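question for whoever is on the cluster today: can someone run the full assembly for these? two chains, 486 residues total. i dont have access anymore since they changed the login thing
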Amino acid sequence: MMEELVKTVEPLKIADPILDIEHLCFYYGSKEALRNISLALPRKRVTAFIGPSGCGKSTLLRCFNRMNDLVEGVHIEGTIKLDDEDINAPDIDVIHLRRRVGMVFQKYNPFPKSIYENVVYGLRIAGVRNRTILAETVEKSLRAAALWDEVKDRLRESALRLSGGQMQRLCIARAIAVHPDIILMDEPCSALDPIATSHIEDLIDELKQDYTVIIVTHNMQQAARVSDFTAFLYLGELIEFDVTNKIFTAPSKKQTQDYITGRFG
Amino acid sequence: MSQHFLREIETLKKKILAVGAAVEERISQAIIAVVKRDAALAQQVAEGDDEIDEMEVEVEEDCLKILALYQPVAIDLRFVVAVLKMNNDLERMADTAVNIARRAEYLATQPQADLPHSLTDMTQKVQKMVKQSLDALVQGDTTLARKVCVADREVDQLNKEMHVRVQQEIRAHPEQVERLIHTLSISRHLERIGDLATNVAEDVIYTVEGEIVRHRTLAYS
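^ ran it for u. tokens below:
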């Protein structure tokens, strides 16, 4: 009874995707990290990437804002279109791309500056000087990151004095401050306790009103809780992409089922 | 997932099958009590219900423990949820067997009368449905489970025929009304067991295929 999966289903079709990935292959030197991935990611929804360590989910995530450019000897084939624009085209401004596609990392990494300065950092780099705009952005971003009430009276204090969960929310506020379209999150809760994790998860739910969120997580329950869609990757290949509810109750592929039920990986 | 979890699932499977086997036995004894007019056996079926109730509670507690501790997903989740439901259905089958046994106790006090042929037919069909639903569970056999769902329609039809027949007999032999009503009750209880076996079969289909086929006649074919 446990072994049999009966049906194969049509691949999920996403109308008006924000990211459209076609035949993506990615190499670290001669090592193939992603193999022929085609995937359309829905706008203003949360998509989770799951899979065992080394399956390529973080590599895929980092392709979306070209963070992999910083790694020596990488090579990419296929296309990634952000709103119909090829993000790997030669004329693309990578700084501008990264403003549109923000990122939150596994280990919270606030700058050794004040809370205020952390949030406005991106705007300052972009040349914004107007204090009213900066102050408004700080409040708006911190509110959106569900941190405002906790820090509004100490905006000039060092960000490094915040708790881990608060620092991670500050990093989210920093990402939001530059009005991105997409927020990439690479294991955003792995260094947090369950309460801080639940704050971030609530926040992710709020964020999808305005942003597209793509999250990499090892925590299967977290993927099930926070995401609308889930992609399962294994050995650099996309095995299955579907509505999260479907993936966690009745996945179509045996490999997906074996992974999420812990029978391998 | 840990070996622990896999062991828990295996144990749960064994326990639900044990409930199934015990219930199958109770139904069989209740029917024998009717056919052989064996009041003592009927009494035994009624008294044995506590044991099934205890087994049911134990299986439910195991399911809740697995859900709370392991948060199963996919086929494991479907299996645990299906067991929770089957457990309930099996316990109700046992209750219904007790109801049949009560009717047998009464009929044993009455003068001997032949049981209607359609009732005998129903007992065989319903026992087969229960057996097949449990076999389907053991083997994860959805073809067999679908057979159970189809057989349920035949049992429903036989029950309807019994209604008509008993009405006619009451008109012809009004002095036997009590005996006839008890006989009709047995038919209704058998039909109910058939429904519950169908529920079990539908849960087997859900576990294996991930699709809820309840209320969807076409899904049986």
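summary bc i know u wont read the tokens: Chain B has one domain: 3-220. The radius of gyration of chain B is 19 Å.
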